[in-house]
Amino acid sequence: MGAFERLRSLFGGRAELPFDLDNPALEVVAEAFDPAEADSAVLARSPRWRPAERAVLRHHLVLPATSVDRARELLAQDGWELRVVEPGDPSRLQARRAQVITALSCAQERSRMAGLAQRLGGDALGWDCLQT
Fold first, then answer.
1. Residue 65: domain span
2. Is 37 within the bounds of a domain?
């Protein structure tokens, strides 16, 4: 029995392989940058989104440089990874996490990111979803 199978047996068959947030095969399958468009509509119009499969949900944020460390700390508590998008512009960020995407999870996280950005003096621009 391999290491993964042992892990799976320890956790009742629920263990998953680690998800590579940097997998070069990941492609944007849905995106929402219009705050007036419902997340359910965004996902419904995407022919490439596979609802039963894990994806990378990326929220695009703009934050003051003085708030980045605090945002990183808060987001890490729920498994989010905060990354600078452009090294020359540390205010443009992406919060990333692998998960199964639903309209409800997108709406909840969009609201959370907007609130976080507002509290820290920034803005949440929108989100996109990547799958292989």
1. 19-131
2. yes
| Structural domain includes residue 2 | no
DSSP track, 96-123: EEEEE--HHHHHHHHHHHHHHHHHTT-E
Read off the pTM: 0.85
Residues with Cβ within 8 Å of 112's Cβ and at least 6 positions away in sequence, in order, are none
Give the pLDDT means over successive 10-residue stretches in the chain (132 positions).
51 63 95 96 96 96 96 96 90 96 96 97 97 94
**Token representation of residue 39:** 């997340």
Asked if residue 75 lies in contact with residue 83, where contact means CB atoms within 8 angstroms, the answer is: no
Q: How many CB atoms lie under 10 A from the CB of residue 119?
A: 12
User: Counting beta carbons within 10 angstroms of the beta carbon of residue 59, is it exposed (0 to 12), middle (13 to 18) or buried (19 or more)?
Assistant: buried
Distance between CA 126 and CA 25 in Å, rounded? Answer: 22
